[in-house]
Design a protein that fits this description.
With 285 residues, this protein is an alpha/beta fold. The protein contains ten helices and six strands, in the order βαβαββααβαβααααα. It has a domain of 196 residues: 3-Layer(aba) Sandwich (Rossmann fold), CATH 3.40.50. It has a six-stranded mixed β-sheet with strand order 4-3-2-1-5-6. Helix 8 packs across helix 10.
Length: 285
Amino acid sequence: MNQLNKKGVREGGQNIMVTVSGGRSSAMVARHIQTSEKYKDFNKIYVFANTGQERVETIDFLKNIVKHWGLELNIVEGVYSNIMGVGVKYKLVDFETLSMNSEPFSGAIMHKNKGIFDGVPNQKAPYCSESMKTIPCKKFCDDIFGVNNYIKSIGFRKEDMPKRITFTEVKEDKKRIFPLLTDFDNVIGNIELNRWWKKQPFKLEIHGKFGNCELCWKKSKNTLIDNIRYGTRTIDWWQDMEEKYGNTAYRERLSIDDLVKMAKLPYTHEFNFTKQEEDNCVCSF
């Protein structure tokens, strides 16, 4: 039997970072890796990176993952400095201490703007996912497993091919695994995902378009309007960020006030939008 090192990790074992986004796909991946014989000898770290803009329903979903599956979920938040040369760090929080008021997001924008960059994240400068998700999770797992001494699971589904990944890329990738595309008799898509979740003792009590950051600039305009109509606590925060940094995150240079005005129009109002696809990021899988 492999010996445990000082950090409680079996030496000589394979290591895997299981990222849990707060959505259904990554949760299914986490449960599969937790229970599958294929991964029984892996050292596993389950991690969720909190931005402070997740909905209460998302946090409740994560709580149920822990409660019903006994999954050891680590919650990290980015820690940011306004001092030049000081990079992104992380801290571990729990369900009692995690931010629900956008503090990590505010810190990430401040951190990015301390040099020559100026502005909130947008399509041309999509730095928020890296600053709030990728880097904090990586630094946490680097501390546990050693720098880059692990693979990472991604919750891509059938619908993500071939635009976001191809089977050739899946087979050749040495740093990431895609269990929903490789580990089942049939590749997992939305239909299979829905069937699987119907068998679980809990569910995500919110439509997927409302998940993750409430008013994420990567959502389509119609989805943003639906989010505002559904109810969101982050409108004031976005107004403050636009005023402070002098730009807007949203497509076609729409401000948050523009979107709020659109959301106040009657439901029968027809918006003349060109079709927009969601710009998915690591927050989504």
